[in-house]
UniProtKB/TrEMBL annotation:
Organism for this UniProt entry: Salinisphaera aquimarina
Protein location: Periplasm
InterPro entries linked: Gal_mutarotase_sf_dom, GH-type_carb-bd, Glucan_biosyn_MdoG/MdoD, Glucan_biosyn_MdoG_C, Ig-like_fold, Ig_E-set
Predominant localisation class: periplasm
Domain Glucan biosynthesis periplasmic MdoG C-terminal: residue ranges: 64-541
Family: Belongs to the OpgD/OpgG family.
Origin superkingdom: Bacteria
Protein name: Glucan biosynthesis protein
Signal sequence region: 1-26
Gene3D superfamilies referenced in this protein's UniProt entry, alphabetically: 2.70.98.10, Immunoglobulins
Lineage summary: Bacteria, Pseudomonadati, Pseudomonadota, Gammaproteobacteria, Salinisphaerales
């Protein structure tokens, strides 16, 4: 029987698409799609109880803090799961364009004119946002609900406003802070849909998303989507440079407490601390999940009929391994579902990056893909043994998120278990890799004829490396190409040549198509005369 899997975030308006296919990544069913509207327009101006070296939360004057949220999560996990209440059907029936006509009034922003450096605005439920999220405020006077008030919104008609229940509730919220201009507030972080959230550094537009948790992604039984059901916004200190948000997460399998410490800047950093309480065993628990979109790029053998050379929110995965190796994996839009695992015991860092920052590589005035942020995860403490899983889903439209990355603990996740993780997410345009290493600038792959006029029965791979010491090396013997395959295959014409246009080096080789009866896993890097690595390791699955 054909399954329908909800997938991806829509660029054109916070809505969810369905992919009809074999089991694949399901992005949030009702929700996270809507966050993609911001990618079209600029933002408004792990195993049993693990140690995590997370900074201590500054308790509110009332004594309310992370411990109280943890206690609520534990209490909730001890009871059967109860789905959240739903909004009225007429709001569910809205398409996104109609929901988008409901605007939060700028002068109703929380903390407006309070001189706190931060403001918050709240999303209206409707369309794919089918349940209200409980909002609370924490300040010196205590903890209090932030009640829904439809007067905070402008509606397209009085008739619609009159139909809105007075106690409807909010779908999510966004935070604003001075980022690009000290005299203007910009969006820095948004929480909307299931457990999705996104951040921005300076001069960036929304692209990829993070999630609170991923459960059984790509499994035959279908993915489970945990939901953030409650938020507590802690009033920031006057002239403070960060703020705190607490959240409760719930699903049939798990309940969880979250603390977000958000520090905006050229690179905005979101510190995440999470304590999970399981109700039942979980076959695959995805920690610190990221989701993004890759439609086509310079490595695409089969291009779409489009005037733009590339279209993607992220172009690669980067891993900092415990053994010191840096691993770069260019993303693909495969012809069938790909799920790849990478050993990541005590992983030092991982993320999805948009390294290509040149407008002329995209030629897109509307989406401005060159301004998409990277999301780099730095685990706090030792997460123990586990692996990273990269999910790449076939997609025929760039409005769908079709990429996911998350860390999976090796130890089985059982019922009635308490788990703790902490990590930082850096939202920025930084490379993430160390300056001492050369990094991959581009991965170009295409059919080639070894002899002109003969059939194009060979795949040519050209990897551009730049940075590190590569710019100072001009002797052809000083740079040695290293290429190997994970199974027997023919690899010919391996060579490294200096590229004066990039200031780096190009590594090229040929693979006959008759060696590609199944995907061929490849690894490549540039070494010095003594065999030491000059670059990160490039890894790729060359498809038939």
């Amino acid at each position: 029987m054909t399954r329908q899997w909800p997938i991806g975030l829509l660029k054109t308006g916070f809505v969810c698409m369905a992919l009809v296919a074999t089991p694949v990544l399901a992005q949030s069913g009702s929700d996270a799609q809507a966050q993609k509207q911001a990618s079209k327009t600029p933002p408004a101006k792990a195993a049993p109880a693990q140690n995590a070296d997370a900074p201590e939360a500054a308790p509110a004057p009332t004594g309310f803090g992370y411990d109280q949220v943890v206690a609520q999560a534990q209490t909730r996990a001890g009871k059967p799961y109860t789905p959240p209440a739903q909004i009225p059907k007429f709001l569910k029936d809205f398409d996104f364009s109609r929901l988008d006509q409901i605007k939060y009034k700028r002068d109703q922003a929380l903390w407006r004119d309070a001189g706190l450096g931060f403001e918050a605005m709240f999303y209206h439920p409707g369309s794919y946002y089918t349940y209200p999220v409980h909002m609370n405020l924490v300040n010196a006077n205590g903890v209090m609900p932030f009640a829904f008030d439809k007067n905070r919104y402008s509606y397209p008609s009085d008739d619609l406003k009159n139909r809105i229940p007075d106690d409807l509730g909010y779908a999510g919220f966004k935070l604003l802070h001075a980022l690009n201009d000290p005299n203007k507030l910009d969006e820095i972080q948004s929480f909307l849909g299931a457990s999705y959230f996104r951040g921005l550094g300076a001069d960036e537009h929304y692209g990829l998303s993070a999630r609170g948790l991923a459960i059984d992604t790509g499994s035959d039984k279908g993915e489970e989507f945990p939901l953030f059901t409650d938020f507590w916004l802690v009033e920031p200190k006057k002239d403070g440079d960060s703020m705190t948000v607490y959240a409760l997460l719930d699903s049939p399998s798990v309940s969880g407490a979250y603390r977000f410490e958000i520090k905006p800047g050229t690179a905005t950093v979101t510190h995440v601390e999470v304590t999970l309480f399981t109700r039942k065993p979980i076959a695959k628990l995805g920690i610190a999940p990221l989701t993004s979109m890759f439609s086509w790029g310079e490595n695409s053998l089969r291009r779409l009929d489009d005037f733009r050379p590339e279209a993607h929110d992220s172009d690669g995965m980067l891993i900092a391994s415990a053994n010191g190796e840096w691993l770069w994996r260019p993303l693909v839009n495969p012809q069938k579902l790909w799920m790849n695992q990478f050993s990541a015991g005590n992983v030092r860092g991982f993320g999805l990056l948009q390294r290509d920052r040149k407008f002329d590589h995209y030629q897109d005035l509307e989406y401005e893909y060159e301004k998409r942020p990277n999301a780099w995860i730095t685990p706090q403490g030792d997460w123990g043994e586990g692996h990273l899983e990269l999910v790449q889903i076939p997609s025929d439209s760039e409005v769908n998120d079709n990429i996911a990355l998350y860390w999976v603990p090796k130890a089985p996740v059982t019922a009635n278990q308490r788990l703790h993780f902490a990590y930082d997410i850096k939202w920025s345009s930084e490379l993430a890799a160390p300056d001492s290493f050369g990094h991959t600038v581009a991965s170009r792959i295409g059919r080639a004829a070894v002899v002109p006029g003969q059939p194009r029965n060979t795949v040519r791979v050209a990897i551009e490396f730049a940075g590190g010491d590569l710019g100072n090396l001009t002797d052809p013997n000083a740079v040695q190409p290293r290429v190997n395959a994970m199974r027997d295959a023919t690899i010919n014409n391996i060579q490294a040549v200096r590229n004066p246009h990039t200031g780096g080096w190009r590594l090229t080789f040929l693979v006959p198509t008759d060696s590609l009866d199944s995907p061929l896993e490849l690894r490549a890097f540039l070494a010095d005369v003594n065999g030491g690595a000059l670059t990160e390791t490039w890894t790729y699955a060359l498809s038939p």
